[in-house]
Predict the structure.
Amino acid sequence: MSDLEIRFSPSTEQDAGAFRLVELPSELCQLIDSAVETKTSQPILSIKGHPTEDAVVCTADKNYTLRSVVLSNTVLVLTPSRTDPDGTVHVRDQLHDVLELVPSVPKLHKLSVLLRGMEYDEGDEDLRTTLPKYSYEQARAEIQASESELRVGLRERRVLVLDGYLRPIAPAHLNTILELLLNYLISLSLVHDAAPVDDLVSALADDHDISRGVSIQVMSWFGRIEENTWKMDVNAVVAEIGLGIIRHYKLELTWHRVVDKKHEPILETEFMTKWKNAVGDTFESAVLLQLLSVRSPPLCTFSSNESDIRVQRQGNYLRNTNNVLGTTLNYFAASALPTDAAARFAELFLTHPRWKGDEIEPFLSDISVNAKERDKLLLKHARAITTPEGTWYTARVGYNN
Amino acid sequence: MIVPIAVRPLHAFSPKLAPSIANLGHDGLFLIELQGMLDVQGSESTSKDGQLIGTLNTADMGKPTLVIGHHLLEGKVVTLSKPLGVLHKHVHVRNDGPSAVHPDVSEDEDEDNYQCEAQKQMEKEKDENKQVRWDVIAVVKKKIVFSKRPMPIAKPASTASRGIAH
């Protein structure tokens, strides 16, 4: 028998709209295949988003934007009939669109707005009850990012999880803790790549009233805790201390031009001296300006697979070589810039009319999935000029008039 | 808001497709693409339940045919550029919620108002108790496409008689 009767489903009303088709990228295909093999009924994907946002699909570690593509044809979903599986099939649903998945960056930018006013600072223990609260579970449900992206995002943003609630640590307080950690490493004569966690945590708690939970989380951001010993990531600690200093020399941006009346830039030589003083003699040799724009160092330096190390850079400072007094530095963080690509480029070109390729790159890494997409953004929003010194990027549009 | 998606392949007890169709890669589900759409006349939404649409002939999978009414369509099997996951919606209505218990309302409250409020409340609770879950029930890699113009045929019964002749 090669003839099949096609019939409507016996329960059309219940079936209509109950089916959707999703185009699967190869990674997701593998994920589904492995779930079929292991027979897990645990959800492996989730669709996340507020009704006003574009929905995303998250796996355990990746994030895809969900888009509906309208088809001019009709796709019928057919299944065999229960009573006559060999001779009859039922049309379960008629579809006119297919869902498409496009890899996208985790939408973590919302966090900083949501967590406004929930900063954790020194002597904060008594205030805890009165503060507005936002829990980790809430963030997991509302932030459009996969679980591991959310964890990395929280660490990059230096957000503590205290009693299940999210509390971004005040930068000054974080710096205090790090400087104290460096001091205790020296004064207790501990080695920085295998320091006993308990000794450091107790010292901070007893002498400076810094809660154990806080210091352990800070230590895990800046190194790895294994079997009660802390392997400090020297570069990460040094970089964070440097950021703490340069943060006082923030570039003030106003409409039409850049003015830095309130916050003068700092001379590069002066900054380096301050930085070296802050980290102390032992770690002085690790001080390097480029450290300031290395993103999430713990992930890079401790990656088990050497070839997997991809240093992602995130812009944090601006260097100006034209000043009469010498090279100056300003604090200028990519994380504070708009997330929309057009607005980001507008702000970048308002700040600096022209950028070198490797200068602008750190300011684009958090809005593009990979280098290819970053270059696409550059192609779309900037004009490239090749000179003997390298490639310069200028604005495609006149932002100043 | 999170909508969880689990992988729950059609289980072993579900009916299986005829072997010629199962060759498309899945034994419990397949896709047909048509130009245009099935136009059904009739007012009641349940009146088309189980009604016959047409006949699919899969004797030669290189040239499947579909007869709908007086039209004969010739199709082909196409491998999809990207595999398609078929998602199926499950709506759970939880009964463990507080929906069965009505909130106590003081007696002097306006009767109409109370009813209206209570109804709204119930609807809201019904929505809250409804849990939507989507399952990936199959991954499909091929489909049958009928993209050519339908050819009119004089007697729709002709294909059926051919079937008997075999």
